[in-house]
Design goal:
Elements: H1 2-10, E1 16-19, H2 28-39, E2 44-45, E3 55-62, E4 65-72, E5 75-79, H3 81-85, E6 91-99, E7 101-106, E8 109-114, E9 117-122, E10 127-131, E11 135-143, H4 144-150, E12 162-163, H5 167-182, H6 188-191, H7 195-207, H8 217-231, H9 240-246, H10 251-259, H11 267-283, H12 293-299, H13 305-316, H14 320-332
Length: 333
């Protein structure tokens, strides 16, 4: 029994956590300023440095995304070109207020975010925030590429507050609250199954929400095609010809949709990238150690193991076997 407990401990995904109580009162403001930039994205605090502050934060990695729980006394800050320039990568952030209120400012436009509401903001935009009363919030940090895969017109929703107390919004916020309760003690193998349904629920929620600008017919068609591809990803016979036929568009238009996308990759390349990503997730998951690399590759639609190996080596510079061994070792350390 003791050996089983020790083995399970190795499968835990380490939680990063910080609390202001670990610092003398006079040092808390400066420490909090540094932590905000480390856990979220680079920010500069504008609130008085002498103000006492009580704050805490913890985060957990969900593959390339991060889930963050934060509580803070009143504080304010901003992101300008300087902070944006220090940001490593491009991200979308879903901010959900559990209690209190946060005032956000996008390009001079004030957006109050009350408890029960959530909002999308992106790392490439200048913005300000002000916490006027004790606040607790959840944040989901998502790489821009992943967000656009599921929601091509994500930019149109930035700065639009959404009521999370009814409809699809309530399903999403309920899911986020459940994550807050459960994920901190979940094993890495269980966490491997959390990211994808969370992002898909997020995308479906925004699909039901009016935004400031309606997506173009082309953007809506691209979103629909990508959803279809993801639903049929395990099928080796998923070809551009079949995709075009099943979605009642011409093959030429299908290629135009992907060629004009921000990522600028062909439909076949996009399918390969999605399959490769899911294979990498399964190879990293201790739950699937009893399955061979061939079984995993074939499960996600690859029908040539050599081709799969070449794609993975081109992406990360390692063979499937080397990648699997490295990731499983990390989960045990």
């Amino acid at each position: 029994m003791q050996e089983r407990g020790a083995a399970e401990a190795h499968l835990r995904n380490p939680v990063a956590a910080w609390s202001s109580t670990a610092h003398p009162i006079r040092e808390r403001h400066e420490a909090w300023a540094q932590v905000l930039s480390e856990y979220f994205l680079p920010w500069t605090l504008s609130s008085p440095a002498q103000a006492p502050i009580c704050a805490s934060v913890r985060q957990l990695a969900l593959d390339d995304c991060r889930f963050i729980q934060c509580a803070s006394d009143p504080v304010s800050g901003f992101r300008t070109a300087r902070e944006i320039g220090r940001t490593n990568g491009d991200f979308y952030n879903v901010l959900y207020v559990l209690s209190g209120m946060e005032l956000l400012k996008f390009q001079g436009r004030d957006v109050p975010l009350a408890a029960g509401h959530f909002i999308l903001w992106d790392s490439g935009r200048r913005m300000e925030f002000a916490v006027r009363q004790r606040l607790e919030k959840l944040t989901l940090v998502i790489p821009e590429r992943q967000m656009r895969n599921l929601l091509p017109n994500a930019q149109d929703y930035v700065g639009v507050p959404i009521d999370g107390t009814h409809g699809m919004g309530r399903l999403l916020t309920g899911h986020l609250r459940s994550m807050r309760r459960e994920i901190w003690s979940m094993s890495s193998s269980d966490l491997a199954h959390v990211r994808s349904p969370t992002l898909e629920l997020l995308a479906r929620t925004y699909d039901t929400v009016p935004c400031r600008r309606r997506p173009s017919v082309r953007a809506e068609t691209l979103r629909r095609i990508r959803t279809y591809i993801l639903d049929h990803l395990p099928e080796p016979e998923l070809t551009p010809q079949r995709i075009a036929k099943d979605n009642r568009i011409s093959l030429r238009y299908l290629h135009l949709l992907f060629g004009d996308d921000d990522e600028g990759v062909s439909v076949s390349a996009w399918i390969r990238a999605q399959r490769l990503e899911r294979c990498m997730q399964d190879l990293s998951n201790p739950v699937f150690t009893h399955q061979s690399i061939t079984q995993i590759a074939y499960r996600w639609g690859f029908n040539d193991l050599g081709h799969f190996g070449k794609l993975l080596r081109r992406k990360i510079g390692a063979s499937p076997r080397e990648f699997r061994r490295s990731r499983l070792q990390q989960s045990r350390d």
